[in-house]
UniProtKB/TrEMBL annotation:
<dbReference type="GO" id="GO:0048471">
    <property type="term" value="C:perinuclear region of cytoplasm"/>
</dbReference>
<keyword id="KW-0677">Repeat</keyword>
<dbReference type="GO" id="GO:0005484">
    <property type="term" value="F:SNAP receptor activity"/>
</dbReference>
<comment type="similarity">
    <text>Belongs to the SVAP1 family.</text>
</comment>
<feature type="coiled-coil region">
    <location>
        <begin position="378"/>
        <end position="405"/>
    </location>
</feature>
<keyword id="KW-0472">Membrane</keyword>
<keyword id="KW-0175">Coiled coil</keyword>
<dbReference type="GO" id="GO:0019905">
    <property type="term" value="F:syntaxin binding"/>
</dbReference>
<dbReference type="InterPro" id="IPR000727">
    <property type="entry name" value="T_SNARE_dom"/>
</dbReference>
<dbReference type="GO" id="GO:0012505">
    <property type="term" value="C:endomembrane system"/>
</dbReference>
<dbReference type="GO" id="GO:0005886">
    <property type="term" value="C:plasma membrane"/>
</dbReference>
<protein>
    <recommendedName>
        <fullName>Synaptosomal-associated protein 47</fullName>
    </recommendedName>
</protein>
<feature type="domain" description="T-SNARE coiled-coil homology">
    <location>
        <begin position="381"/>
        <end position="430"/>
    </location>
</feature>
<dbReference type="GO" id="GO:0031629">
    <property type="term" value="P:synaptic vesicle fusion to presynaptic active zone membrane"/>
</dbReference>
<feature type="domain" description="T-SNARE coiled-coil homology">
    <location>
        <begin position="143"/>
        <end position="179"/>
    </location>
</feature>
<dbReference type="GO" id="GO:0031201">
    <property type="term" value="C:SNARE complex"/>
</dbReference>
<dbReference type="GO" id="GO:0098793">
    <property type="term" value="C:presynapse"/>
</dbReference>
Length: 431
């Protein structure tokens, strides 16, 4: 169940070279392998089992090349070349060949780019498991701190904008006072009124905030390669990237061109289907919703930011529970901290003999008296916990500062609103 849990599957056919014929079935991508299973009710000639016959199964690490080809046998096909010059042919893929190619190539390349594809290491000790848990919590808190830092910068920019507005309102108050009681002009019509209107328009343009559509100049919190498609149109899968900034979420294609931008307040829900696939939806009244699906081998990096930015909008689906119980890591990822959340539960039972015969005491003494955490691991844990405490205190300080900034922003905006209303009434009297 752990490594055979499918990430994505497609219906299609597989060419059995020994029998010189095509067999219908399901092409499945798992965390570590690609597998093709024949349909239970036919295609193989012999009686297939309840779950179908696995005609091909090979790990991602053995793949040499993935190509879209055509031959004399079929019009178009997807081929996977394995070590040992073994070539697998897949055809009649639905929704289309290109969609399957983009997803397989994405996960295969992410595994190639990983620092190493060695077999799983030996079981970790208690100290190493604890270090992994603390390290994961430390990274999560560091991500939260970065989001808070960007949020604090936005508050600072808002404060500067309000200060400029108050300064402009002060200038407007002086000009209105001169217009209301000119000391030397004896007539009713004021010749400089047109000039004053131009100045007022310039002040209003200066106070107007810039359009929030562009994300240029903003810091990128996280960016991961991904395969993107809109709604249920899986045939339109295309490689690209998912970029998260403090104010929006951007989907771009492989050439860097913008596919769609979700502003932070426009996102209605983020559904997590599994650790590698999410869907983002923006709802509308009277027209279709905008929904995109994103699949990525490095989705865990983006999920840590999404959980902070979109808190109550993140929803875990029923499919996610299958992966939640699996301690495997993502392809191409050396971060084993996520797998240790489940590992901590497995090692909770300690075996300590209640009564030990006197003759066997010397043989079991090393096993029983061996410390679960070494001195070096304890020192490393101590340092990491101190860093974790420091990060938590910094986050608390930043939150308190932002609370104070919010209070100042609220009072400043109230004063600016009152001043604008008062100046508007005075200008109407002058007109």
């Amino acid at each position: 169940m752990s490594r055979d849990t499918p990430i994505h599957s497609w219906s299609g056919s597989y060419y059995v070279n020994g029998e010189k014929r095509w067999v219908s079935g399901q092409l499945t991508l798992t965390r570590t392998a690609v597998r093709f299973t024949a349909e239970p009710s036919g295609g193989t000639g012999g009686g297939a089992g309840v779950g179908g016959v696995a005609l091909a199964s090979f790990p991602l690490s053995r793949i040499v090349e993935i190509k879209m080809e055509s031959s004399s046998f079929i019009f178009s096909a997807l081929t996977v070349l394995e070590h040992g010059n073994v070539k697998h042919w897949f055809g009649s893929l639905r929704p289309c060949r290109a969609a399957v190619y983009h997803v397989l190539e994405h996960f295969w390349r992410e595994r190639l780019l990983s620092p190493g594809d060695a077999p799983p290491p030996a079981p970790l000790s208690k100290g190493q498991e604890l270090i992994g848990l603390v390290s994961g919590a430390q990274r999560r808190l560091a991500d939260t701190g970065r989001v808070l830092d960007h949020q604090g910068e936005q508050f600072d920019n808002m404060m500067q904008g309000l200060d400029k507005i108050e300064s402009d309102l002060g200038v407007a108050d002086k000009l209105l006072s001169e217009l209301e009681s000119p000391p030397w002009w004896p007539f009713g019509k004021l010749p400089w009124r047109s000039q004053q209107e131009a100045k007022t328009a310039a002040v209003a343009a200066a106070k107007a905030p810039p359009p929030g559509g562009g994300a240029k100049g903003q810091r990128v919190i996280s960016s991961v390669p991904a395969v993107v498609w809109r709604g249920e149109a899986a045939a339109e899968m295309r490689p690209g990237s998912l970029t998260l900034t403090p104010s929006c979420m951007e989907l771009r294609d492989a050439g860097g061109r913008l596919i769609h931008r979700f502003l932070r307040e426009e996102v209605d829900d983020v559904r997590v289907h599994n650790p590698y696939q999410i869907s983002v939806r923006q709802r509308f009244i009277g027209k279709p919703d905008v929904c995109f699906r994103i699949i990525s081998a490095k989705m865990a990096e983006a999920l840590s930011v999404l959980e902070v930015q979109y808190k109550k909008k993140v929803e875990l689906t029923g499919e996610y529970s299958t992966f939640q119980a699996t301690p495997s890591t993502t392809p191409g990822s050396t971060d084993s901290a996520t797998s240790l959340w489940g590992a901590g539960a497995h090692g909770s039972d300690t075996e300590v003999p209640v009564e030990v015969p006197a003759g066997d005491l010397t043989q079991l003494q090393l096993h029983v008296l061996q410390p679960a955490v070494t001195e070096a691991e304890a020192q490393e844990l101590k340092q990491m916990l101190l860093q974790l405490k420091s990060l938590a205190l910094e986050a608390e300080t930043e939150l308190e500062r932002q609370d104070e900034a919010l209070d100042v922003l609220a009072s400043s905006s109230d004063r600016a609103t009152m001043s604008i209303d008062k100046h508007t009434r005075r200008m109407r009297k002058l007109l």
